[in-house]
Amino acid sequence: MQHVVVAECRDGKLRRVSLEAIAAARQCMADGDTLAVLLLAGGAEDAAEATHLACRGPDEVIVIDHPILARYTPEAFAAALLAAAEALPMAPSAWWLGHTAIGRDLAPRLAARLGAGQVSDAIGVATGADGRVRFTRALHAGKALEQRALLPGDPWVVTVRPNNFPPAAERAGPAAPIRSAAFNPPPPIVRVRDVVRRVSTAVDLTEARVIVAGGRGVKHADGFAPLAKLASLLGGAVGASRGACDAGYCDYALQIGQTGKTVTPDLYIACGISGAVQHLAGMSRSRVIVAINKDPDAPIFSVADYGIVGDLFEIVPLLINELISTP
Ligand SMILES: Cc1cc2nc3c(=O)[nH]c(=O)nc-3n(C[C@H](O)[C@H](O)[C@H](O)COP(=O)(O)OP(=O)(O)OC[C@H]3O[C@@H](n4cnc5c(N)ncnc54)[C@H](O)[C@@H]3O)c2cc1C
C-alpha cells in the first residue's frame, strides 16, 4: 500500500505538523507499505526543506516547485498533488495532511477527486488486529471521542490535528531520495492578489507548544502586554477567549474554542478566562493547563492541572520575573 504525506511550508519553513503526519502514517503502515512525501514548493526556499523530510523516514520525497504554489489556491494545489502522485510507482491509497487551513480545504477536494473516504482532524491512529486502520476524533466540543475504521485497500484522505503525534525524528542512515516531478498548472480560476496577516506572531497558534491565553479578565488591549511577554519568554504564542475578542482587546485570529482555533499545546496558561464550555472545547486537550483567575469557583479550575487564585496583573509579572532571574 502506498502512503503519501503532503508536506506544507510556511514562509519558507517546513511546518511541524508535516513531520507529525509522517509519524502518524508510520504508526499504521504494514510490512511492504511504502511512504512518499510530496512537497509543494513555491520557490527555492520551500524546495530546500525537502532535505529535512528526507531524513525523517519516508521512502522518497517528491518535490513540485512552481511559482504558482507560493500562495495557496485550491485548484493549483490539488492538481499539483495529483501530478506528483502520478510520479509514484503505485497509486496512493492513503493520503495524510495536517489539519491546517490548507489541509482542511485541500483534503475534501482531494477525496472527492479520488473517490476516497475522508477523516478530518484525527487525534489518534491505530491498526486493529483485523488489519483495519482506526482513527480517533474528538466530538461534541471534545466531550466524546469517536473511532472511525477504514478497510485496508480502500483509498482515504486524512488530516491530523497539530500537536497530537510526536514529530517523526531524524533517522540514522542514508536519507531518502529526493526527486522533482513535472507540473503544468491548470488555468487559474482563482488568483490571490495579496495575503494580509491580521496577526503576525513568530509562533503559529495551532502548532505552539506553549500558549498564554487571555480572557475578559485582562480588562483592555494593553492588558495583553504582560501575557505577550510571558509567551515570548516561554517561546510560545498568545491566544484569547472569545470574551476578550468580543470586547475588542485582541483580534479574532487569536480566539480559541468551539468557534475559534483548536489547540493542543504542552502548556496552556489561561489568564482571566472563566472556562466556558465553548472555550474548553478548543483547549481542554492541552497537556498541562495552568489557570490564573481571581474567582476560586471559576469553571476553568475544573480542567486545570495547576490553579492560581489571584489577580493576573500580580501573578503574570511574578512569573516573568522568575523566568528572567532563572539562569
Ligand atoms: C455558539 C457559541 C460559541 C462560542 N465560541 C466560543 C469560543 O470559540 N471561544 C470562547 O472562548 N468562547 C466562546 N463562546 C463564548 C463563551 O460562552 C464565553 O462567553 C467566553 O468564553 C467568556 O470569555 P471569558 O472567559 O474571557 O470571559 P468571562 O466569562 O467574563 O470571564 C472572565 C474571567 O476573568 C476573571 N478575572 C477578572 N479579572 C481578573 C484578574 N484581574 N485576574 C484574574 N482573573 C480575573 C473573572 O473571575 C472571570 O472568571 C461561545 C459562545 C457561544 C454561544
UniProtKB/TrEMBL annotation:
Any one Pfam family match given in the protein's UniProt record, by short name: ETF_alpha
UniProt similarity note: Belongs to the ETF alpha-subunit/FixB family.
Protein name listed in UniProt: Electron transfer flavoprotein subunit alpha/FixB family protein
All residue ranges annotated as the Electron transfer flavoprotein alpha/beta-subunit N-terminal domain in the record: 3-199
Cited PROSITE patterns: ETF_ALPHA (PS00696)
Keywords: Electron transport, FAD, Flavoprotein, Transport
Source organism of this protein record: Cohnella yongneupensis
SMART domains per record: ETF
Coiled-coil residue spans: none
UniProt entry tagged with the keyword Coiled coil: no
